[in-house]
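Before surveying the methods themselves, let us examine one representative protein, pairing a chain with its fold in C-alpha cell form.
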Amino acid sequence: MRFVILGTIAWLSGCIADQWHDIHIDHSSCLPEQQFRYYPDRDGDGWGSPEASVWACTSSEASHSLADLLGIEEVAASPNGRDCNDDPWDPRASSITGQTATLCPDDFVTGLPDQRIFYTPVIAVGMELVALHDEPVTTDARATPVTWPTAAADTCGPWGWGGGIFGPLEGSPAGSLVSFSSQPNALLDALSESIPAAVSFAGWVGAVSHREAKTPGLDEGWYWEDVRGGAVAYTPVADTLDALPYCNAEPDTTRHDRLALVVDDRPCLGLPSDAGARYSNDFEAHFLCAREIPDPTNFIGPG
C-alpha cells in the first residue's frame, strides 16, 4: 500500500481544462472586471465541482448560466471548485465537505488496481469525521488497504486532509486522528449509526502512549491526543473508559505506541487484532480522521 499525496497534487495542478471553463457571461449586470468565478454545486452544500466554471456578477446569474452550460434544469453556484463529492445521488455527499488541503477521502490510500476505498463520513458535535473500512460484504480483493499508525496520522493531519505537502495550510482546519477525549458518547453514537452494520473493523485513533506523546514528562500510560489550532493537548484515556473501555486487558505501552478503535459487538479501545482475523498483526489497521467543519465561504477558486 502506498500513499498518493504527490499524485494528487500532480492531478490538481492539471485541473480539468476544457470548453466548460472560464466562460464570461454576456449581458451580465456588471463590468467584466467586476465579475467573480463560480462553479456548479450539484448537491447544494456550498462546495462547487471543478467540472465547469463561469464568470458572473452574482451567484444567481451564475446558476442560470451553469445550468444551461451543463444541460440541466437547475444548479446552485459556488465561488470555489473544491467539493470532494458533488454527486447529489450519493448519500455520503452532504457529509463530505471540500478539499481544503491536500487530500479528499477518496485519495487517502491506494491499493492494487482492483481495490477501492470504502469510507463513511460522519458529522457530529461540530466535527467532520471520516472512517475508513472494508466493503460491508467484502472479499480480499475489494478490501480497503490498512496502514501503520504514523502514516495514518500524517494522512489525517499535516500531510493530507488537514494540511499540505509542505505542512499545514493557512485557513485550513487542522486534521488529526479522532480523539474521544470529550463527548465520547456522542461521537460513538454517530459512528455506530453511520458505519455499515456488517463491518467489523479496527481504526487507528488519537490514543497514544506516553512514549509517543509530543509533550515530555507525562506519567506512564495512554493519552488522547487533541490537535486544535496548532496546539496539542493530552487527556488520560482512563478518564473515558466508562464510555470506551479496553477490549481486553490494557495494552502494554512498552510494546505499542498507539491504540485502535475496535467496532465489533460493541466499540472498545485496543489493538487491531481485537477485531479478528482481518487484521493480521497489531501494527496495521484502518483509521478515522477528524477536523472541524470547514466554511466553504473561506475558500475561493479551484482546488
